Amino acid sequence: MFQWKKTVYKSVLLSFALVVAMTVLQRGMTPTQFFQGQPAKELLSQEPVKAQKRDNVISLADNFWKKAGPLATPAQVTSKQVTSWDVTTINCTANLNFTKDDWFKGLEPNFRQFLLYRHCRYFPILINHPEKCSGDIYLLIVVKSIITQHDRREAIRRTWGQEKEVDGKKIRTLFLLGIASKEEERANYQKLLEYENHIYGDILQWDFLDSFFNLTLKEVHFLKWFHIYCDNVRYVFKGDDDVFVSPDNIVEFLQDQKEADLFAGDVLFKARPIRKKENKYYIPNALYNKSHYPPYAGGGGFVMDGPLAKKLHKVSEMLELYPIDDVFLGMCLEVLQVTPVAHAGFKTFGIVKNKNSKMNKEPCFYQNMLVVHKLLPLELLEMWDLIHSNLTCSRKLQIL
Ligand SMILES: *[C@@H]1O[C@H](CO)[C@@H](O)[C@H](O)[C@H]1NC(C)=O
Ligand SMILES: *[C@@H]1O[C@H](CO)[C@@H](O)[C@H](O)[C@H]1NC(C)=O
Ligand SMILES: *[C@@H]1O[C@H](CO)[C@@H](O)[C@H](O)[C@H]1NC(C)=O
Ligand SMILES: *[C@@H]1O[C@H](CO)[C@@H](O)[C@H](O)[C@H]1NC(C)=O
Ligand SMILES: *[C@@H]1O[C@H](CO)[C@@H](O)[C@H](O)[C@H]1NC(C)=O
């Protein structure tokens, strides 16, 4: 077994090296030449973020948020006239309005940092692929990733992220990234990422730090990007880079959907904000003082229809950013009065709780799922092969 894993790992590495070598040969250049090509100077800037330049036109054609009561001042609204990414400079100063307040001083440093820059909504785009959304696309798969997780992206490309057509329905895949959060990783990994993008052409990258609290920033950047570039995308799957996904099952599920404003996933109703400081999802009262969150789908993987993604973009610009990205989307859905649909084929919570659960290893279980959290690259490759071998399952699990 161990030997077998080693072989898989070796062949993954080897095939990546081959692809690199072939591309270099095809383009008639040396890797060094390629690396020297585009130094991402702006990226490496260590300067504090300054106020952003805005030249958007405000157009509030729809007024669906009127019911929602008082909302944050509309920072800026991406109008339909915008045809390309329109944020080109970082110009955003810390908001010092509440630094003297006691509630602020009592917060943990990461929350203070979040609040100081909460109003900085959009950053320049460093790697873009407008062509990804051209033509009729049935399902756009977008995966939250970080620069150092190259092996996860590689495994996804070989498994559920493969671009293909299912019954004539086009599936396209993109990875969503910010910049390396650790300074020492920035320069070298950035070059590797640019090279990876050169080979696969499936990276979107923006000029903000990839940190946990910036995941919401990634969410709103994707929604804005989608609004600008994606007019003919029927559905969007958005998820993490450490999950198992079955695009075939997702397409099968989507084919039966007739309702507009579809948003489906592993939905939590009446989840309580976590008040224990040790927890990764801890939220102080000063940031959220209600007892429950609106219904929201786990960010590990969910699907929504394209038109709804555009509405979510508009609403997201009316709300203040919230540090937990999936809860933030739940807040946006609440404003739109759209209730997310809970579907048993999405397992983004809970599966880690029971390490011995059958779910962790059973291919017949995975075969019937849409999304399962969580699998590391080798486990994903292994599971994918098992499912696509001549698997005989004693009984069909009634999930779909
Ligand atoms: C950044 O914003 C400040 C104040 O809003 C302005 O004075 C300055 O000119 C801006 N800088 C750039 C490069 O846009
Ligand atoms: C800080 O407060 C002033 C006055 O209330 C307001 O005009 C400004 O927009 C606030 N700054 C931010 C970044 O919210
Ligand atoms: C989010 O990214 C911005 C831009 O890189 C950075 O200034 C800010 O500190 C980050 N926020 C958090 C909470 O990490
Ligand atoms: C909760 O927060 C809102 C705004 O942040 C504030 O207006 C309200 O008074 C707070 N409620 C309680 C019970 O603290
Ligand atoms: C899988 O089944 C098909 C036909 O049922 C057979 O031709 C093929 O050899 C099998 N493949 C493996 C790997 O067992």
TrEMBL record:
<dbReference type="GO" id="GO:0008194">
    <property type="term" value="F:UDP-glycosyltransferase activity"/>
</dbReference>
<dbReference type="GO" id="GO:0006493">
    <property type="term" value="P:protein O-linked glycosylation"/>
</dbReference>
<dbReference type="Pfam" id="PF01762">
    <property type="entry name" value="Galactosyl_T"/>
</dbReference>
<keyword id="KW-0812">Transmembrane</keyword>
<keyword id="KW-0472">Membrane</keyword>
<dbReference type="GO" id="GO:0018146">
    <property type="term" value="P:keratan sulfate proteoglycan biosynthetic process"/>
</dbReference>
<keyword id="KW-0808">Transferase</keyword>
<dbReference type="GO" id="GO:0016758">
    <property type="term" value="F:hexosyltransferase activity"/>
</dbReference>
<dbReference type="GO" id="GO:0030311">
    <property type="term" value="P:poly-N-acetyllactosamine biosynthetic process"/>
</dbReference>
<keyword id="KW-1133">Transmembrane helix</keyword>
<protein>
    <recommendedName>
        <fullName>Hexosyltransferase</fullName>
        <ecNumber>2.4.1.-</ecNumber>
    </recommendedName>
</protein>
<comment type="similarity">
    <text>Belongs to the glycosyltransferase 31 family.</text>
</comment>
<dbReference type="GO" id="GO:0000139">
    <property type="term" value="C:Golgi membrane"/>
</dbReference>
<keyword id="KW-0735">Signal-anchor</keyword>
<keyword id="KW-0328">Glycosyltransferase</keyword>
<dbReference type="InterPro" id="IPR002659">
    <property type="entry name" value="Glyco_trans_31"/>
</dbReference>
<keyword id="KW-0333">Golgi apparatus</keyword>
